[in-house]
Amino acid sequence: MRFDWKKSVLAILIALFSLQKNVLAANWLNDFFSEFANFDMARIYSQYHSFIDFFIYVMIFVGIGQVTLYRIYKGKDVNNAAKAVSVGVGLALAIALTVFKPEVFSISTLGPIAAIIIVILLGIVLFGVLRPVTGDSGGSAAIALIVTYFVMRGVVPSVYNWIKQHAPFINGFMGIVILIAIIRAFQWIWRALSGRGSGGGDDGGSGGGDDGGGGGGILPRRRIRDEEDEGPPRRRGWKPNKVHNFNVRHMGDHVQMWWDPRPDDERITFYEIQKKSIARFGFFREHTIWRLQIQPTRSFTWRTVYHDVHVGTQANPVIDNFKVKPGHDYKYRIAASNEAGRGPYAYTETNLVAQNFMPIILNVTVDHDGNATLEGVIR
User: Fold this and answer.
1) The model's pTM
2) What is the CATH number that goes with domain 244-354?
3) 82 CB contacts (<8 Å, ≥6 apart)?
């Protein structure tokens, strides 16, 4: 049975709001959260501020270094080297900041605004690091929120005390949010542990086949690769990476697309390509006459134009019967998918050459509102 955390959290909130009078009268909710509310994170930070600051510095410097080097250097081998360089540079900078006069300098001495910005940056980087590892955006966000909240209470206790005294509703709201985040984090941990431990190995456990029928209804961990593939298996929950060098070319009544090959060890099930047209003018074809109506720019919604099973390491799809219109800009995006989900989109756009569709003007009419209508024949 799959645990639906959204429905569970919604049920908890509805129950709390429906029983708020009884809850306030009995005061059991206050007693339940009293230990949590009085938890002195500032005292812990004052005793272990060097270790906490070192953790914050490492997460920020390593995360920023990986993002920067990944954008500059692309490719599997270079990317692995970039990760090693970013970790080394991040550790060196973190050690330097931690050792540099720790008795007089820490994040808490920067002031409330600067400390809050650094802690929020820590949460963003922590979410970015956990998301590709766990493959679960909700669980990663919950863990990042919990860490950010407690670090914030330790680094800037004055802000927390001010909110507690002058804006208790914000403090109560944050308590509910942290409670939901803790439930979501435990749900992710339970799902990860049950997926790892069920099934008794590759044989599916006793009494169950490949589907893990004897594991109490919990599916075993699945390998996202073919049995004949070489190399170590990819970790569970890893989605495909972003497609690089995605290009589109209009060729008459069809469109040609191409992009860089994927790494051999990256499992791709299918590609999905979507199109979005942006109209600068409105064209309506009537037999051999093009009718042009001048109007504001319009942007249409994304529409899937290619969705096929991936074969090999590179695909060059040709979409036939593709009717392009003059005065339109076309945007395309592509994403690779596998059993773990869909990867990030890569975007490109094309601008049609206006001379190919320039009509011979036959008639021009303008109404009282200033709207112009042109009629002409395509050359």
Assistant:
1) 0.38
2) 2.60.40.10
3) 66, 69, 70, 72, 73
